[in-house]
Amino acid sequence: MTSLPPQPLSPLDGRYRAAVGSLGEHLSEAGLNRARIHVEVEWLIAQTDRGFFGTQPLTPSQKDALRAVVTDFGQADIDELAALEATTRHDVKAVEYYVRRRLELLGLDSIAELTHFACTSEDINNLSYAITVRDAVQQIWLPKLGLVIARLTELAEEHRDASMLSRTHGQPATPTTMGKELAVFAHRLQRIARQVEQTEYLGKFSGATGTFSAHVVAVPDVSWPDVSREFVESLGLTWNPLTTQIESHDWQAELYARVSHANRVLHNLATDIWTYISLGYFRQIPAAGATGSSTMPHKVNPIRFENAEANLELSSAVLDSLAATLVTSRLQRDLTDSSAQRNIGVGFGHSLLALDNLLRGLGEIDLDRALLLDDLDHNWEVLGEAIQTVIRGEVVAGQSTISDPYALLKELTRGKRVGAAELAEFVSSLEIGDAAKQRLLALTPASYVGLADELVDRLAPHD
């Protein structure tokens, strides 16, 4: 048997690349290296702007040329860095040598020794990870989540008045509307999205053990904490003043926990929609030419929601592991975070793939309102709650002497099917006021939905 040509090991880079490939712009090794070069270049510019060691500020054209090293970063540069790392056996050192080469090509070799000046590798790495994760979340993951929330909001509005039998514990229960139930998911996800939007992306820039030791020895008369803060903030990050060699990764643990929480709410959505499809409440709109089953041609399988379930579970497994691992580092530094952080893209990739499937799945379903009403019409016993509650009020108001309304309705309805005629006869015989009796006689399972329709308005407007 001949060997296969090189193949992607992960389905994220193979079968599902079209759905998640945009994350590679940020959360790939190449994206990380481009961010590292960005940090190194900006540090060079910051040092010359301050005139360290008698240097002059770079001219605008020189700054533009240096920054173009970042913006023009492409495949040839990726290959060059890979070759450098094969020699250095150190990823950040390879980046340093790459930047030095560019300084020489630009005629700026006089400032080459300021490349990576007073930095430990983690000064570059932590800022680069913060930049790449921030951009991936803000530019790709959150917008996709927003599309899912927007679709849920549309469906909630469309079906706000679609009365539906509830199933608490899987059993017939007080009716609701499909719109209100979908609004619950949209509301939950809106709240988590706001929390993710408020994430602080922290950065440190303080040397080998977070003490500015080399900085102070090299340039004693500079306020290094101020320099560090200004530099970190210039990258759009929040400065962390107290660290070891590494930034402590607490912001990452917080972010991944929130994304994992969103995953679990989305998982709940996927299983509920799957169940509604199973009950026949939602019909799936078949795609032209698609096959549901290899042997049963009638089937339209709910694969979008099943695919989402699996990928949400995988995403949370990775993100939960990262959140637990990254907050611990032995003494002033160990390398467990180095390997762990290379899987950030995997965690977000599976979540993004799930969002893509959910969005497509939610666009391929149609509500069968007639079936919902038929289901309600076969479950008049759910009005037992309404009847016993009204009787209680009548007893308090002196309009009834019924001693135990709950027991009375329990005897009538528990474990039994009770039809419209039986309930009407029962209500007509009750010792309650005429106004209360008429309200109950007018009630149907389809109309017993309280404020479900109005509650949809509690959803925050979606941009």
Automatic annotation (TrEMBL):
Coiled coil: none annotated. It holds the Pfam family Lyase_1. Keywords: Lyase, Purine biosynthesis. Pathway: Purine metabolism; IMP biosynthesis via de novo pathway; 5-amino-1-(5-phospho-D-ribosyl)imidazole-4-carboxamide from 5-amino-1-(5-phospho-D-ribosyl)imidazole-4-carboxylate: step 2/2; Purine metabolism; AMP biosynthesis via de novo pathway; AMP from IMP: step 2/2. Signal peptide: none annotated. Residues 63-308 form the Fumarate lyase N-terminal domain. InterPro entries: Fumarase/histidase_N, Fumarate_lyase_CS, Fumarate_lyase_fam, Fumarate_lyase_N, L-Aspartase-like, Pur_lyase, PurB_bact, PurB_C. The keyword Transferase does not apply. Residues 329-449 form the Adenylosuccinate lyase PurB C-terminal domain. It comes from the Bacteria. GO terms for molecular function: (S)-2-(5-amino-1-(5-phospho-D-ribosyl)imidazole-4-carboxamido) succinate lyase (fumarate-forming) activity; N6-(1,2-dicarboxyethyl)AMP AMP-lyase (fumarate-forming) activity. GO terms for biological process: 'de novo' AMP biosynthetic process; 'de novo' IMP biosynthetic process. Its EC number is 4.3.2.2. It catalyses: (2S)-2-[5-amino-1-(5-phospho-beta-D-ribosyl)imidazole-4-carboxamido]succinate = 5-amino-1-(5-phospho-beta-D-ribosyl)imidazole-4-carboxamide + fumarate; N(6)-(1,2-dicarboxyethyl)-AMP = fumarate + AMP. Belongs to the lyase 1 family. Adenylosuccinate lyase subfamily. NCBIfam families: PRK09285.1, purB. Catalyzes two reactions in de novo purine nucleotide biosynthesis. Catalyzes the breakdown of 5-aminoimidazole- (N-succinylocarboxamide) ribotide (SAICAR or 2-[5-amino-1-(5-phospho-beta-D-ribosyl)imidazole-4-carboxamido]succinate) to 5-aminoimidazole-4-carboxamide ribotide (AICAR or 5-amino-1-(5-phospho-beta-D-ribosyl)imidazole-4-carboxamide) and fumarate, and of adenylosuccinate (ADS or N(6)-(1,2-dicarboxyethyl)-AMP) to adenosine monophosphate (AMP) and fumarate. This is Adenylosuccinate lyase. It comes from Agromyces intestinalis. The lineage of its organism: Bacteria, Bacillati, Actinomycetota, Actinomycetes, Micrococcales.
